[in-house]
Automatic annotation (TrEMBL):
GO terms for cellular component: cytosol. It comes from Methanomassiliicoccus intestinalis (strain Issoire-Mx1). NADP(+) binds at G165, R166, S167, T235. Belongs to the tetrahydrofolate dehydrogenase/cyclohydrolase family. Pfam families: THF_DHG_CYH, THF_DHG_CYH_C. This is Bifunctional protein FolD. Catalyzes the oxidation of 5,10-methylenetetrahydrofolate to 5,10-methenyltetrahydrofolate and then the hydrolysis of 5,10-methenyltetrahydrofolate to 10-formyltetrahydrofolate. Residues 6-120 form the Tetrahydrofolate dehydrogenase/cyclohydrolase catalytic domain.
């Protein structure tokens, strides 16, 4: 059996086309949606993410503003930048790229962001709204996973979804989104993590498995039940002497072997990654609609 490959590139392109119309509608009314990105320090992975976000803004016709700060910036200076973006009428949504240097309290920074400009949907206000099923914004990666499932014909309704990983960025919000009453949800959700005993048996009961643990090729073929749908959120660098850069990216799933038993699977790269960027753009555009009392 050949597994269906769920392409994040293709699905994100569909969503981009829908968003182009939304942007055109705003521009007809003299509004250009604006997204701000704050980057602290020189983390290479974070720099790539920020550049990808700026490129996506250009592609969709959004105004972008990148605030690049040195790693030794003080917490107060960073909070001042957050206040400036909160007050900037041309920036409808923004995010502070995580992780931050150790001397800065991430929670303090997230709590300082205006919830109505919170592009990542990490503010406790937005997390709470999501949990009760009345979100203003949805976090980009978890929402992207939901869109991938629905648009690839793998609706989670009535299915048992097993999530491996309990981070605030992926594991917990995916669980909250997929258990809601409503379209693209209505799943029965189990969350596993590093302290779960009998992990293999639990994962094997999943109709849909979401791997988000940050451990290369951790999910093996014998953990997946025949016909399950596998969403791989992991992006891990592994050394590879044959690759031009000396490394390559692999997911948390042993893709080559797992695709022999799965009915559908996401690749790494080209799976969840492109979805994260496009859902972030959707949040920025949605914020511009809301700021102007328009229905998106």
């Amino acid at each position: 059996m050949d597994a269906q490959i769920i392409s994040g590139k293709e699905i994100s392109e569909q969503i981009r086309e829908e968003l182009r119309e939304k942007v055109a509608y705003l521009k007809d009314r003299g509004i250009t949606p604006g997204l701000g990105v704050v980057l602290v320090g020189e983390d290479p992975a974070s720099k790539i993410y920020v550049n990808n976000k700026i490129k996506a803004c250009e592609d969709l016709g959004l105004k972008s503003k990148a605030v690049i700060l040195p790693a030794e910036v003080t917490e107060d200076e960073l909070l001042k930048k957050v206040d400036e973006l909160n007050a900037d009428p041309e920036i409808h949504a923004f995010l502070v790229q995580l992780p931050l240097p150790k001397h800065i309290d991430e929670n303090k920074v997230i709590n300082r962001i205006d919830p109505h400009k919170d592009a990542d949907a990490f503010h406790p206000f937005n997390v709470g709204r999501m949990l009760i099923g009345d979100p203003i914004f949805m976090p980009a990666t978890p929402h992207g996973i939901q869109e991938m499932l629905v648009r690839s014909g793998n609706d989670p309704a009535g299915k048992h979804v097993v999530i491996i990983g309990r981070s605030n960025i992926v594991g917990k919000p995916v669980a909250a989104i997929l258990m809601q009453k409503g379209k693209g949800a209505n799943a029965t959700v189990t969350v596993c993590h590093s302290r779960t005993s009998n992990l293999q048996e639990i994962v094997k009961t999943g109709d849909i498995v979401v791997a988000a643990i940050g451990s290369p090729r951790f999910i093996t073929k014998d953990m997946i039940k025949e016909g399950a749908v596998v969403i791989d959120v992991g992006t891990n660098r592994v050394e590879d002497a044959t690759a031009k850069k000396g490394y390559r990216l692999v997911g948390d799933v042993d893709f080559e072997n797992v695709k022999e038993v799965a009915s559908a699977i996401t690749p790494v790269p080209g799976g969840v990654g492109p979805m994260t960027i496009v859902m972030l753009m959707k949040n920025a555009i949605s914020a511009a609609y809301k700021a102007n009392n328009l229905e998106m």
